[in-house]
Amino acid sequence: MEQKANTFLETEGVGKLMAKYAVPCVISLLVAALYNIVDQIFIANADYLGSDGNAANTAVFPLTVAALAVAVMIGDGCCAFVSISLGAGKKDAAHKSIGSAVLLCVVSSLVFTALYLVFQEPILTLFGGRVNEQTFYHAKEYFFWIAVWMPFYMFGQTLIRSDGSPKFAMSSTLAGALVNIILDPIFIFVFRWGMMGAALATVLGQILTAALSLWYLRHMKAVELNRESFRFHSPFAKKYLPLGVCSFLSQISLVMAMAAIQNMTLKYGALDPVFGQEQYAQILIAVLGIVMKFFQIVISIAVGLAAGCIPVVGYNVGAGRKDRARALFACLLAAEAIVGAVALLIVELFPRQLIGVLGAANESAYYTEYAVKCFRVYLSMTVLATVNKGTFIYLQSLGKAFASTAISMAREVLFGIGFALLLPLWFGLDGVLYSMPVSDLLTFAICVVVIRYVYQALGREEKQADRA
Questions:
Q1: Are 400 and 447 in contact (CB under 8 A)?
Q2: Are residues 97 and 236 in contact, defined by beta-carbon separation less than 8 angstroms?
Q3: pLDDT tens sequence across 8-47
Q4: Which one, of 394, 377, 467, 382, lies nearest residue 429 by Cα?
Q5: What's the pLDDT at 1?
Q6: Integer Cα distance of 441 and 340 in angstroms
Q7: 3-state secondary structure labels for all residues of 212-242
Q8: Residue 227: CB partners within 8 Å, gap ≥ 6?
Q9: For residue 94, what are the CA distances in angstroms to 79, 84, 157, 165?
């Protein structure tokens, strides 16, 4: 019955199928990315916050990603294990795993909150928050409120992943993002609560997402939870946590890369005749945060396109239709290149318009000049970056998780951190900007070899199936 219901995955055009499955994924990821860019837009356009506030937001952002890394490890791992358990008819393992994951999330989020509050100043200093006195003041204010309510953020992120429902994940995240968008201008411009207002708007959106997640947790049809569920069942935790390690590594490697880039920006910015002056020092971190978050929007689309291919690839590989798996791979790579090309045209042709949305009117000419340069240089290999990301995820859909993780880690850790530390030795502050395109270029060189191998391997398997 199930196979009959899904035969369209084997017969319908691969482009149409990719669009059908990718659109919900893209929307969900774009909505999640709104959390990261909305605060930045309103903070930048507040004349009493501006680039100082944006630099503070940039310093805090990696710390939310660190918490997210743990949340996705628990949630994605639990989702995979619950799916396996339900497929095997083991409902007892499923409900105990979900309850155990909830408990583990709560405990780990409280640990994050405690660590962040106790070691607030050294942590913010590590991520560039002490660039000047005003930025450090804003960073501490913003970070305090984010840290206090961190359990709600992690709780919501864990639950929307543990169930594996893309529609629910999209709806609950969208609801939280809308709250953030509505409250940000009220708190920042009307009440003039500054960084506290920006943080509270974000937090209240996250609380709504967590509340919806809790409601959904109590109304799941496939799994019925009870009091016994909410205990720490270590045998199940040992099984589902390793399944989320790939998700954890992809997030935590970003944190490491951001720490390296932000610290190198501060170190070599201090030697610059303009940005070495205290009144301009925060511009570098503020602009870097803006550019990275624009890039995150582009990558969200790239990831959504690739994630939409996963069920289609899995079905066709299982059905022995390697020809369709090859065709879908080609279609995906073309779509990823188009997304990257459009993004590249935007940053190369309209950087001043982008910067205008992000508060350039309240800043000096140095802000605009450096932002234009940062957009054009730092994102100059965006086409390759989107193709790389599509390749990583497609490899996962083919069951080649090790290869996918290895290439991804090479991009983020070996190249991303390595070049951020090395290139400034020869090129100074510009070396930080060069680190991104150089990393994407070298990663693409690896991906070309992998793409060719995978494409040829699928072709050989197709011919073998035809002979059989």
A1: no
A2: yes
A3: 777 788 888 888 878 877 887 787 777 778 888 899 899 8
A4: 377
A5: 38
A6: 13
A7: HHHHHHCCCCCCCCCHHHCCCCHHHHHHHCH
A8: none
A9: 9, 9, 19, 15
CA-nearest of 380, 395, 414, 377 to 455 is 395
Token look-up 């893209």 returns 26
412 φ, ψ (degrees, to nearest 5): -80, -40
- Residue 140 and residue 108: Cα distance in Å, rounded? 22
From 89-98, 409-418, 430-439, the region with the lowest mean pLDDT: 89-98
Q: How far is CA 370 from CA 88, 161, 269, 334, 365, in A?
A: 57, 38, 12, 32, 9
User: What share of the chain in percent tops pLDDT 70?
Assistant: 95
Residues 348-361 have a mean pLDDT of 86
Residue in 123, 127, 150 with CA at minimum distance from that of residue 55: 127
Tokens, residue 69: 């890394």
163, 86 in Cβ contact below 8 A?
A: no
Q: Tens digit of pLDDT for each residue in 81-131? A: 876 787 677 888 888 888 888 899 999 999 999 999 999 999 999 999 999
**What's the pLDDT tens digit per position in 309-331?**
877 777 777 777 888 888 889 99
pLDDT at 2: 39
DSSP state, residue 97: H
Closest of 53, 66, 209 to residue 131, by C-alpha: 53
State the Cα–Cα distance between residues 80 and 451, nearest whole angstrom. 26
Q: What is the distance between the alpha carbons of residues 326 and 456, in angstroms, rounded to a whole number?
A: 9
Phi and psi at residue 320, to the nearest 5°: 80, 10
Q: Confidence band (pLDDT; 50, 70, 90) for 166?
A: low
Match 């106790």 to its residue by tokens: 118
Find the helix or strand (DSSP H, E) in which 350 lies. none
Which amino acid is located at 51 in the chain? S
Nearest to residue 271, comparing CAs of 425, 59, 379? 425
In Å, how far are 39, 263, 378, 415 from 36, measured between CA atoms?
Answer: 7, 20, 19, 25
